[in-house]
């Protein structure tokens, strides 16, 4: 999907925004830098093109989750609307608009890419602080009432960084009720297709690659993604990015559970152990977010006593 980032102006619920630049685009949406006409304040505008009622439902779902998930480390939805109607008329489309804060530092993925070029690791204390705050946002989602929520696409590209280097979890388009009961092959195939479409391959949990016909998928699919994200904080990429770049099967690598760490490393074995703690192939053996946070607290105490 292409976005025209010229001198376009967009009205959202009576407020005028002028498009200034294209910040990024994916398969379903694009994000533009916009400026509020009256205040000149900058925002990020996410635009989602809807070609069907199903697309519109998915966009509405993202807006709904963005409105109700309120946490210091989850992106704030400032305003939103859907224009047009993606009904049964041929070539009929609608477009969803989400006004979000603009983070000039960009994403954690951007930041790590720069670090990899300079070949300098993040300080271990910064790694723990960033990861801990991400885990707090995930804990909030996993314990949300009346129904726990799973993000289902946790990755460095879905974490923005504030000027103070605080992580802000974004892109709630893949969010769903945390617990899903799979009853039969049709249910399994449906969830597998959704995961293939909306969950990034190199951060995707094994149970979402090959969904069993009779099972329960829960929030621990996010814990696998967190393990990949922590690995990326250490070594710039998910442990399965290299598999993808070689052209090998990510599916097979993930299901095998093999995780390779660099032989020469600046990091303690305890951090590798924490990653492996989360990357359990069997979701029933994988920890919940509270267990992960407890391990981080232990590691933080160890760091404090080693000064």
Mind explaining what this structure looks like?
By secondary structure, the chain is an alpha+beta fold. It has two domains: 9-101, Phosphorylase Kinase, domain 1; 108-305, Transferase(Phosphotransferase), domain 1 (Orthogonal Bundle), CATH 1.10.510. It is built from ten helices and twelve strands. Strand 3 and strand 4 form a beta hairpin. Helix 3 (124-142) runs antiparallel to helix 10, helix 6 (220-235) runs antiparallel to helix 9 (269-278) and helix 9 runs antiparallel to helix 10. Mean pLDDT is 93; it is low at 1-5. It is an enzyme of class 2 (transferase).
Number of separate strands: 12
CATH topology category name of the largest domain: Transferase(Phosphotransferase), domain 1
Neighbour order of strands in the largest sheet: 1-2-3-4-6-5
Main pleated sheet: 6 strands, antiparallel
Rough outline: globular
> What's the number of domains?
2
Query: CATH superfamily of the largest domain, please?
Result: Transferase(Phosphotransferase) domain 1
Task: Output the number of helix runs.
Answer: 10
Average pLDDT score: 93
Give the uncertain stretches in residue-range form: 1-5
Could you state the order of secondary-structure elements as H and E?
EEEEHEEHHEEEEEHHEHHHHH
Percentage of residues assigned to helices: 25-40%
Terminal CA distance reads 51 Å
CATH class of the largest domain: Mainly Alpha
Structural class: alpha+beta
What share of the residues does DSSP label as strand, in percent? 15-25%
Radius of gyration: 20 Å
Give the second-level CATH assignment, the architecture of the largest domain: Orthogonal Bundle
Pfam families: Pkinase (PF00069)
EC number: 2.7.11.1
Family: Belongs to the protein kinase superfamily.
Keywords: ATP-binding, Kinase, Nucleotide-binding, Serine/threonine-protein kinase, Transferase
């Amino acid at each position: 999907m292409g976005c025209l980032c010229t001198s376009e102006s967009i009205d959202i619920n009576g407020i005028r925004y002028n498009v200034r630049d294209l910040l990024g685009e994916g398969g379903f949406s694009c994000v533009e830098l916009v400026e509020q006409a009256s205040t000149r304040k900058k925002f990020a505008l996410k635009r989602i093109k809807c070609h069907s009622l199903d697309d519109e439902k998915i966009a509405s779902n993202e807006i709904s989750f963005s409105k109700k998930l309120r946490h210091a480390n989850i992106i704030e939805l400032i305003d939103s609307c859907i224009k047009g109607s993606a009904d049964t008329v041929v070539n009929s489309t609608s477009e969803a608009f989400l006004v979000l804060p603009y983070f000039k530092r960009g994403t954690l993925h951007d930041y790590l890419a720069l670090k990899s070029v300079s070949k300098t690791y993040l300080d271990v204390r910064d790694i723990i602080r960033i990861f801990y705050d991400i885990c707090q946002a995930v804990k909030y989602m996993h314990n949300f009432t009346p129904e726990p929520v799973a993000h289902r696409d946790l990755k460095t590209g879905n974490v923005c960084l504030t000027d103070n280097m605080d992580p802000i979890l974004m892109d709630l388009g893949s969010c769903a009720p945390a617990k899903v009961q799979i009853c039969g092959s049709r249910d399994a195939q449906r969830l597998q297709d959704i995961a293939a479409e909306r969950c990034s391959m190199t951060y995707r949990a094994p149970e979402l690659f090959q969904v069993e016909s009779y099972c329960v998928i829960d929030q621990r699919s996010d814990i696998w993604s967190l393990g990949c994200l922590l690995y990326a904080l250490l070594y710039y990429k998910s442990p399965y990015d290299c598999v993808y770049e070689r052209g090998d099967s990510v599916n097979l690598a993930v299901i095998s559970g093999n995780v390779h760490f660099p032989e020469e490393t600046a990091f303690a074995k305890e951090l590798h152990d924490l990653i492996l703690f989360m990357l359990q192939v069997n979701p029933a053996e994988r920890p919940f977010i509270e267990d992960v946070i407890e391990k981080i607290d232990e590691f933080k105490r160890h760091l404090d006593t080693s000064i």
